[in-house]
Amino acid sequence: MEAVAHLFPRSKVARIDSDCTDREVEAAVGAFKLRTGVDVLVGTQRLAVFGEALRASLLGIVQADVGLQFPDFLAPERVFTMIMRLRRLVTGGERGGRTLIQTLMPTHHVIEAVCSGSYLHFFRAELAEREIEQLPPFRPVARATFAHPDDARAAAEAQRARRELETIVGASGPLDLEILGPAPA
Predict the structure, then answer these.
(1) What share of the chain is helix, strand, coil (3-state, %, to 5)?
(2) Is 93 left (phi over 0), alpha (psi -120 to 50) or beta?
(3) Confidence band for 106, pLDDT divided at 50, 70 and 90
(4) Measuring CA to CA, which of 25, 107, 154, 178 is 20 to 30 A from 126?
(5) Cβ neighbours for 96, distance < 8 A, ≥ 6 positions apart
(6) What confidence tens digit (pLDDT) does each residue in 3-39 have?
(7) What is the SS3 string spanning 150-163?
(8) How many CB atoms lie within 10 A of CB 44?
(9) Element (H, E) at 34
(10) pTM of the full predicted structure?
């Protein structure tokens, strides 16, 4: 937020993130929407819930690729969907608004698809990646999550479940099945 305030010294900048109370968020969004005291909103994906109230001619997304580094095959889809949704909400999609994206991964298919505004580009590239990695829809995946206030107990239960699953699979004969983990969620 300080960097934005430094770049735009005549603009009133407000912040929206998980550290802000609902009242602070509503006040900042209201002031931005009415153009009464807030010129620039800096925030996290929490902004996405405000829809038309965020309408502006410029959307800047900092570290757009952070979510692409999560070890989750659904992460690219979530990042693409969130950026495209914000872009549509803030700039109105194709109606003359601009979106600036900061990224360390400009050639990643998600960033390329966002820049071109092409859902088809994203879909084709993502499907090709998933086929190479044998991820859904090319191969089914099941995930079990174990949670407990005591992390050690949750880990022990996950290990026990894995052993039982291995016993069942071993008794079933040869299967095209791979058991991964357990690993922290």
Answers:
(1) 50, 10, 40
(2) left
(3) very high
(4) 178
(5) 57
(6) 888 888 898 888 888 888 889 888 888 888 888 888 8
(7) CHHHHHHHHHHHHH
(8) 12
(9) helix 22-34
(10) 0.77
